[in-house]
Amino acid sequence: MEIKVFNAALTQLLPICKMVSIVLLCISTTLLLSACEPSNDLSKPVADTEKEKSQHNQESSLSTLEIPASEKGKIEAIYGWLDSNTILFSEKKDGMDSPQLMEWNLKTNTSAVFYQPSSDFSEVSISPTGAHVLISSFTSAGKTAITILDRTGNPQYSLVLPAYELSFEWNSFQEDMLFLTSFYEDWTYSSYVINPEEQTVHSLDFPQPFAQWDSGNGLMFLDWDREEPALTAPLERKALNDGAVENLMLDVIHFKKVKHALMTIQVETEKQDRGTYAFYDETNKPIHSFSVPLLKSFSDWVIPAYDMIEKNKELLTFVPVESKDADQYESKFTLTKLNWETGTQEELMKDMENEPLSCSLDGSLCLYGNQFEKIIDMKTHQIKKLF
User: Are 297 and 348 in contact (CB under 8 A)?
Assistant: First the structure.
């Protein structure tokens, strides 16, 4: 009985379906013909509209970035990147004697306690890949307590050294090694090599207090004259287990060594108010160079803030608009990007202040400011204040 009723209903519906199909065909034909006619609104091409929509989405995502601090906490400083999505900062909560280190995940916009020190700390340094974090705090007795943490915030190694100031350089070839110099009150110094994995510290007789690793067991340094002040120095290299010093080049005012490249800055011979940024590969073979105006102070050169994003083979640096004495320079700077492999150079943002930069490992975002209190989206060039 049910089948007969269904067949009867279906027989009645067939003519209706045919009529609906004819109507839909007419509507589709009309819409197709309308689409073929030229549009009356030619003010915004489709490509531009999509571009604006994409840029708006990017700007909106950056505008929502804000460190999720607690209501009873005060953010004190940002220290840098643990990875491309995680920032390390310090927060002091009401009623607590010392601040705590916090990690903030930008993707999830969540924060968590990274490490709670027992006392105030003065310096924080993150290793190149974020595998280690060093915390130091000065005591009243002219000594410095140093704690090295692993990526999860667990203490690996702690030691106390006599020091009024510290300088340290992580080994990007072997991140469980650290070159550290402690300065005394009279600015004499002692140098050490620290290995947090093996929990060892070795005193090192080294020619200069500031050095950078160029291999697993060798360091580069500028051999400044201690008796006569100079504006340039030779760039030299020394292995940890060898007393011999190798001269690499003369008349360098600044250098930076990363794992697969070396950058040097030298004064140009014919134009003493300009400097050459030169790049070399692992074998110290020249790759590329470019010229910029220099700012000179009474006793040295002013090197504008920069960061090297080795993954992209890019240098991001502030460039002055003219050469001048630093105390007379009133103009701002241009944030410039250079790819040291291809040689392409691009001016990203003008009228910028010369303030420290720290970029994520993929180069998409850069912390900016004396306390890294701002962040720059390198795609949209939008700047957002974080705290």
Answer: no
